[in-house]
Design goal:
alpha/beta
Length: 530
Amino acid sequence: MSLDNAGLPLLKVQDLSVSFAQLKVVECLNFELQRGKTLALVGESGSGKSVTALSILQLLPYPHAHHEQGEIYLSGQAVVGKGDKVLQAIRGNKVSMIFQEPMTSLNPLHTIKKQIAEALLLHKGLTGKPATKRIIELLELVGLDNAESRLSSYPHELSGGQRQRVMIAMALANEPELLIADEPTTALDVTIQKQILELLKSLQKRLNMGILLITHDLHIVRNFADDVVVMCDGRQIEYNKTESLFTTPQQSYTKKLLSSEPQGQMPALQRHDLILSAENINVSFPLSKNFWGKVTSKLYAVKNAGLQVHQGETVAIVGESGAGKSTLAQAVLQLNDSEGKVVYLGQRIDQLKNSAMRRIRSSLQIVFQDPFASLSPRMSVHEIVAEGLRVHSAMDETQIELEVQRVLAKVGLDKNSGKRYPHEFSGGQRQRISIARALILKPKLIVLDEPTSALDRTIQKQILELLIDLQKEFSLSYIFISHDLSVVRAVSHRVVVMQAGKIIEQGLTSEIFGHAQEKYTQILLSSAAL
């Protein structure tokens, strides 16, 4: 940093607008970021957060995208409209970016070593042993275990938290002055999330680095950011110090965002009619086989697990990635190869043949984490929701049409939604479609696998309220899988804690959150509190 720039902010965005063709997506944005500080951009999907971040690096699809007005300054240097030579000196050198989903941002065909080496070669000219030494230093810096042995690993061989650490290592390879972190912890478990955030904070202090944080998790913002810019529909709604914004928000939209944080706790369940019980559930995957094809070693994804679900009850399953949460839920529904006793409404369903099990499927449904991936893009919403009725009922088309309209209305979608396709809906609306698809068969039990993890807090609140209302109206039972413990506390009656395929603790939500007995559970809860 030159003496001429000593008094200048690291980043200054002045009257910035962004348009795609004739559509204005960001308008008159103004904020500053100082060295060693963190500024958070918050708001719902489509508010212009990521577009603003990409504008700083001039990574938008120009000239389709353009800036009608405004300027962006990095240490006093204007960047809007600058040529490739200027921008190449900035990207990855002065400014780096951590993208939201490391699995899609990392090249699946290249090793971790090759991908980090590319950044070192482009900006530092490092090759050979010096480059390898620097790569190991970076991986150790971001806390990746056995860093040297990971050099030849590919992205798919790493966990979500490990991939995010590699992304951070790449971003820090050239010790940037500004780090843009776009939803860096959205898909991570609370323990990994805490590790990543603490890592960024320590690196920020060490490098005197500015961080522009984009997130929809207001809990992280309050504990991590110095200043906050609230955005809505491309406009800057509020800009203030973090503590002031949380304690005395000025704008109604900001108050709405803050009130969307999950609050409270479900009252104790009064009814105790047992719907489903599972005992000694085991799910394993072969690791190696001998010459004759016999399995010689196994990996147990779930080991000797058991749970019970009562009518109208929500049982949450929590734990880190790889703990076996989804695998256990799928075993309960007989959707994978498993061992153990599963009793549904007094009947052993683990012993049923496919034809007999098919008749029970309509009352055991599942809603997946990513509705866009689980809804066929080639089918209309009407066809998607009606599909289950065509398989499991004898209704004619007129009856099916009426039933689809009824259930779409029940989940808050208008009657014309059935004619449209999944890509025409927002994330929250697609999740409503997934719920409608499960609900139309009038199930008694629904497995909800991370149903709100990718949603903004305001949309998340709507979906959770919908699920609770449906539960009360139809006495539905839920198995709720989530890594967001504030959501778990707000919607579940009982909690099952899993670690490495085993259930290590379970009990009433109030007991688990108030008086956790196991050390691992206590670590989970303390991580969620940041």
